[in-house]
Design goal:
single chain; alpha+beta; nine-stranded mixed sheet; 2,3-Dihydroxybiphenyl 1,2-Dioxygenase, domain 1; 2 domains
């Protein structure tokens, strides 16, 4: 059974958004996106602040160096090198130790490791920075018996669910292979898309999440190629289900907490609007909920 595989993911845990200002992002994700913060922390070994929150049914971990100028700490160096944006994705496994051993057996490279977690090297994942962990996140409402994934339905101008995670990794074929053959994901037939540029898109369902892996037609030029070949974690955008995209776009663009710049997506793209928040793209998908 796939569930007996130490690398079988129990759930998609979170997406990390790295940026210089944790408090600013925390406020925008709660006030503008309608998210709920359930844990905040400071990690002295990396001089790093973090906030764990849910936007609808998707956990985001906002991280920032407390002193962006102190290059003596790894996270400050990371943000200085890559700029703000999505850092990585994370899956929960039954045992990080067993997952680590299985990675060694398969020749999967480990980038960093810590108590109860491993970060896989993007050379082995096709270019996606990926964490496997057995951590139970502090105060995580998901783990409560009365948690409902649809708690955010009924707010037409804010996301009510995550549709999918858009990835533009350096090696799309290797990324799809890793998600399917190593993490037991299910791939769908590739489709051709024209936005954000001409590319082949492969949907892969892993655990309770859907990832859309983009393979640009031009791997040398264009926004997707520049992104894939740059210093990043391979996550290009989060696509959100929104009941009233026009009302949501107006709310995002003009509110009291922090305006998020955006523009309409082309007709026929499958999306209604595209926004950029501190290096992280957020796209709307029309869905009544």
């Amino acid at each position: 059974m796939a569930e007996a595989d130490p690398l079988f993911p129990q759930r998609y845990l979170h997406t990390i958004h790295a940026a210089p200002e944790c408090e600013r992002l925390r406020r925008i994700y709660t006030d503008v996106f309608g998210g709920l913060v359930f844990h905040e922390s400071y990690y002295p070994p990396e001089d790093r602040d973090a906030a764990l929150l849910y936007v609808a049914d998707h956990m985001i971990e906002v991280m920032s160096p407390r002193d962006t100028q102190d290059m003596g700490f790894m996270f400050a160096r990371y943000v200085a090198k890559t700029g703000p944006g999505y850092h990585s994705i994370s899956f929960r496994v039954a045992s990080a130790e067993a997952a680590h051993e299985r990675c060694r057996e398969l020749g999967v490279l480990i980038n960093t490791e810590g108590p109860g977690l491993i970060f896989l090297h993007p050379k082995s994942t096709g270019g996606i920075i990926m964490e496997l962990t057995d951590h139970m996140m502090p105060n995580d409402p998901w783990d409560l018996p009365n948690w409902r994934r649809d708690w955010a339905v009924g707010r037409p101008q804010k996301p009510h669910a995550l549709s999918h995670i858009v990835c533009a990794p350096r090696n799309p074929e290797a990324a799809v292979f890793f998600l399917t053959d190593v993490l037991s994901g299910q791939a769908h037939d590739p489709v051709e898309i024209e936005w954000p540029e001409r590319a082949t898109a492969t949907r892969v369902d892993v655990a309770d999440a859907t990832l859309l892996v983009l393979d640009p037609a031009d791997r040398e030029n264009g926004a997707l190629a520049r992104f894939a070949n740059g210093p990043n974690g391979g996550v290009y955008a989060l696509a959100w289900k929104v009941a009233d995209p026009e009302a949501a776009a107006a709310h995002f663009g003009n509110n009291h907490s922090g305006n998020v710049p955006g523009e309409p997506a082309p007709a026929g793209s499958g999306y209604t609007h595209a926004f950029m928040l501190d290096g992280a793209r957020h796209w709307f998908v029309a869905d009544p909920g």
